[in-house]
Amino acid sequence: MTRPTVFIARQVFGDIVDRLRPHFDVRTHDGDAPLTQPALIAALQGCAGVFITGSEKIDAALLDACPQLKAVCTMAVGYNNIDVPACSAHGVVVTNAPGVLTETTADFGFALMMATARRIAEGERFLREGRWKHWGVDMFAGGDVHGATLGILGMGRIGQAIAKRGHGGFDMKVAYHNRSHLPAESEVSLGATWMTLPELLRAADHLVIVTPYTPETHHLVGAAQLALMKPTATLTNIARGGVVDDAALAEALAAGTIAAAGLDVFEGEPVVNPALLALRNVVLTPHIASASVPTRRAMANLAVDNLLAALGVGPDAGKPPTALNPEVLRS
Predict the structure, then answer these.
(1) Given 10, 90, 118, 240, which residue is catalytic?
(2) CATH T-level assignment (fold) for domain 102-284
(3) Domain 5-99+293-330 of CATH type 3.40.50.720
(4) Which of 269, 297, 327, 330 is catalytic?
(5) Does residue 128 have an active-site annotation?
(6) Beta-strand pair 282-284/260-263
(7) Residue ranges with strand state E in 61-138
(8) Are 64 and 76 in contact (CB under 8 A)?
(9) Rounded-to-5 percentages of helix, strand, coil across the chain
């Protein structure tokens, strides 16, 4: 009997990939750069399943060209690179990796917000450039984090974990905007108050963005929204590129509309808007919010768990743990 074939679209932990080998013929792309769309389609010929990251694009054209595909399993929590309705229409189950990266991503988001508020990257560059000659009273004086108002745009798992850090550890006042209100008991435990988006922007000393990227949230924060913020405020984006209008943000940072920004995600990444690169009041990191070894391994293992189950292997056969369209498996 011919075994199903699966494709691993990016270089990933070898011992985790090895979990698939007893059950499938495993093809791998052993590189960090994502394949072009034609190359990805070519690699998926004859494959029943694919393990991807947040970069590979799974759309109707690819699905039409890969009729044997039955499962798309990403190790990312975000899935804006996957056309889930198209997958459902083609009978392809889609899974992601929520939960396992919540705390690590919240750690990073809070650290990036603190680095932005306290001008840590600016200070390091200043020192490395050999420009530190004496101490000054206002040298790299930034904004306080403790006791300030933490604004959270998007109050899912990660947003709540960031709120917990701010409220419990730094005595911050927590304000948030989300499509729906948290349960009253959650608001109390997090010290969180729901606000409209304009209210949140006006109130926040430090705005952290963790909302998913969708057509509705494209450029959710642009020039008009930035103009509502305090000139002393900071903005931290660990959501997805496109939620913030990067060009408008660069203009606001240059004009002093807001004080600083910390960005882990960008429109068109890995390309970064040159105007952002030229600014000193922005901390830039290369989409690494979930990048701890234990968490990245947990993300990869969950993707493998999903791929095994989606293709009928193991104790969860037919029931992938984190399916986004489980109705496909019931049809």
Answers:
(1) 240
(2) Rossmann fold (3.40.50)
(3) yes
(4) 269
(5) no
(6) parallel
(7) 71-74, 93-95
(8) no
(9) 35, 15, 45
d(CA 151, CA 173): 8
Residue 221 carries which DSSP code? B
List pLDDT tens digits, range 212-256: 999 999 999 999 999 999 999 999 999 999 999 999 999 999 999
Catalytic residue among 287, 297, 327, 330: 287
Give the domain ranges of the chain.
Answer: 5-99+293-330, 102-284
pLDDT digits (tens, 9 = 90+) for 58-117: 999 999 999 999 999 999 998 999 999 999 999 999 999 999 999 999 999 999 999 999
Our answer to whether residue 240 is catalytic in this structure is yes
Q: Cβ distance 206 to 150 under 8 Å?
A: yes
CA distance 155 to 143: 24
Residue 187 annotated to the active site: no
In terms of phi and psi (left: phi > 0; alpha: psi -120 to 50; beta: otherwise), the region of 216 is alpha
Residues listed for the chain: 331
| pTM (global) more than 0.85 | yes
The residue among 192, 208, 271 whose CA lies nearest residue 244 is 208
260-263 β-sheet, strand order = 192-194, 173-177, 149-153, 206-209, 234-237, 260-263, 282-284
